[in-house]
Amino acid sequence: MASGDLAASAGSALAVLRGRRPLTHVIANYVSMDVTANALLAIGASPAMVHAIEEVEAFVGLSDALSINIGTLSRPWVEAMLAAAAAAQARGLPWTLDPVGVGATRFRDETSAALLAHRPTAIRGNASEIMALARLAGAAATGARGKGVDSANATGDAEDAARALARATGAVVAATGAVDFVTDGTRSARILGGHALMPQVTALGCALSATAAAFLAGADDAFAATAAALGAFAVAGARAGAQTRGPGSFRVALLDELAALDPADFAPRIEAAA
Amino acid sequence: MASGDLAASAGSALAVLRGRRPLTHVIANYVSMDVTANALLAIGASPAMVHAIEEVEAFVGLSDALSINIGTLSRPWVEAMLAAAAAAQARGLPWTLDPVGVGATRFRDETSAALLAHRPTAIRGNASEIMALARLAGAAATGARGKGVDSANATGDAEDAARALARATGAVVAATGAVDFVTDGTRSARILGGHALMPQVTALGCALSATAAAFLAGADDAFAATAAALGAFAVAGARAGAQTRGPGSFRVALLDELAALDPADFAPRIEAAA
Amino acid sequence: MASGDLAASAGSALAVLRGRRPLTHVIANYVSMDVTANALLAIGASPAMVHAIEEVEAFVGLSDALSINIGTLSRPWVEAMLAAAAAAQARGLPWTLDPVGVGATRFRDETSAALLAHRPTAIRGNASEIMALARLAGAAATGARGKGVDSANATGDAEDAARALARATGAVVAATGAVDFVTDGTRSARILGGHALMPQVTALGCALSATAAAFLAGADDAFAATAAALGAFAVAGARAGAQTRGPGSFRVALLDELAALDPADFAPRIEAAA
User: Which of C55, C50, C51, C44 minimizes the C-alpha distance to C22?
Assistant: First the structure.
């Protein structure tokens, strides 16, 4: 798919999402729940945060997509994540993995590896996380330098790791930062836009991972759907940054701009990459 | 009570709340904690989120009201909810139940039924939740069509179920949506106002359920107190909507407008219903 | 250190923080996580919320500072808090304790006492909490009158208790309110500024406690570093209050103002106290 096609398909992907209003089951970290639910509502999805082992499988059965984020892990949540991922895999439901802080501790590495076995449809992380996950998957020997949950690498450093991870897992892989990179192992693209204030607001990456799940609901082309989600944040982020002066007001404006995105006028800057 | 009386009593209910600053114990879902605490502070209450089985009973003993929300359930939280509800019932402390997503899974149904046995003072949900809860309580055979935690029914569909649920449980029951409906089984009213952006912001219903608990603290008439809480969100929501352009700025303005409500000038649009 | 020196050192403390971007490990209460992470990002730190017993010790080993907040306690979290505090103590890592609601229940008192044994570098609470903690530590017989998690005492009431608590524990102790008081048992100061809207926004005290941990990372003088953190909130709060009309917009502006603080122009109003 050419980059012009990706930009055009983003508009129709947004129109489909708005029409479908996908029930998006999110197993989110605590820090991200508020902004993630609000971003999903703003873009036009119907979010539900459900994490109890007693009901995650049943809830996957009601949902149009699933998103799993390992930010604030604990043993009971890991069990629920694995049950939900297994249920999504069994039903063919699209699901996204956000491997927050993978590489920082053995607990995160083991959890990420176990989740990868359930074949996420898409994976989104910062550059350091994608590089660490690629190494975990045996897909690449990388020089990931994470700092807690923040990246110490630029996304340009992660492109090879992202491609290798996509090939090893079958997932669409997105490494996000000042420039976003997305690949399915064969096709690759870079998404431009966004704003320097985005990393000063907590959990926008988490919100984007869940938003990608909403775009994947019922999508034919997971690569294009993931690129559309990245494009939505890139466009809304650029618009929000143009009208605000700090991270507090930026977050408010970002939610307004996600809601204001018009499928007829939604043309993210997506460039095909080698 | 005539509807004019309800509107007039809402002003005095707000004045009482502001003077009393009720300590409102909230067992909230994770998604809603931030906006719920901020809404309670804005309206003039003193919120405290406490959920450990080791201390919920003691904390109920310190509090003026309790609010229980089942949004992000898990087994340890259910145990604490039941202990807190039992303690409130034993002490005659007013408490509100928000049955998020009831009808979606067996876990939610069982938890809701167990909580109902402790006689909530008021119940607030969307139309689908009220209809599902009425069916659970054996009060009505309803056609609830929830979608995860969002309603697929209008509140008009839920009026009969709300009345039946109120009669079966002794609780004041509120079904909220574009128009809110509240009933104690004998008296009923509709509250007008609010704004189309409200369902685009996560957890405002949860925040309203907790706010109703604060209004119930020490109130003589639970029906009027619940109507006053609904009226506060309806008036603040309409004012917030008039000055904002999207869900991010709407949420900010709603908190400002809740704080700015003036008991002397607080006249929600409440209509008596058959 | 004279008060002029404290104000001057606050600017250099902020410059050091911005340059270092300390990885700040936070075991936060649920209500506070969003605003705490956003405040840490705004001031220039790198926050990470990590609470699982499986990884807290490893994560302390990666971090520059630790902050523990007991707001929404439960048994598994207490175990993780104690493991993290012990690891910080063993490594000489600075850490702050926020004893939310201490004095309200036995569970909070026992947890606070156990955490004190691991020698926090600094303690921040409202006046009632500092007074209750001083009594717990056997440092003073005080008349703390908390109301849930809100203070029913002014900080002026807590000055003696704060000094006694500092002497008994070796920690810098801050009691915050309309005027903040900070002491290491020998030196004491009051920080002026802030705004009347601050207590109408949930968890700003929690966010300040975590921000103090970020200022303590690598600091030579814990008293000056804690005063600098208090000064940051006091200056940003006063500026935010001057441009907003309610608690919703105040919170947004506070985050903008924390990010906008300029080390070259950061002169909090700090007065030496007897």
Answer: C44
Q: Measured between CB atoms, which of B72, B101, B245 is closest to A256?
A: B245
pLDDT at C76: 97
Residue B163 pLDDT greater than 80, yes or no: yes
Question: Using CA atoms, how far apart are residues B113 and B176, in angstroms rounded to an integer?
Answer: 21
Residue B31: its chain A contacts at CB < 8 A? 33-34, 37, 49
Chain C: partners with 3+ C-beta pairs within 8 Å:
A, B
Q: Does B202 touch chain A (CB under 8 A)?
A: yes
**Contact criterion met (CB < 8 Å) for C42 and A246:** yes
Burial class, C20, CB count within 10 angstroms (exposed 0-12 / middle 13-18 / buried 19+): middle
Element at C25 (helix H, strand E): strand C23-27
The answer to whether C187 touches C227, Cβ cutoff 8 Å, is: no
Q: What is the DSSP code string of A197-261?
A: TGGGSTTHHHHHHHHHHHHHTT-S-HHHHHHHHHHHHHHHHHHHHTT-SSHHHHHHHHHHHHHH-
Question: Is the model's pLDDT at B85 over the cut of 90?
Answer: yes
Q: How many Å apart are CA C119 and CA C95, to the nearest integer?
A: 9
- The pLDDT tens digits for B9-47 are 999 999 999 999 999 999 999 999 999 999 999 999 999
Contact A103, A127 (CB under 8 A): no
Distance from CA of C80 to the nearest CA of B (A): 15
Please name the residue that has the structure tokens 């706010």: B211
pLDDT score at A139: 84
Mean pLDDT of chain C: 95
Q: Calculate mean pLDDT across residues A126-132.
A: 96
**Would the pTM of this model clear 0.90, i.e. be above it?**
yes
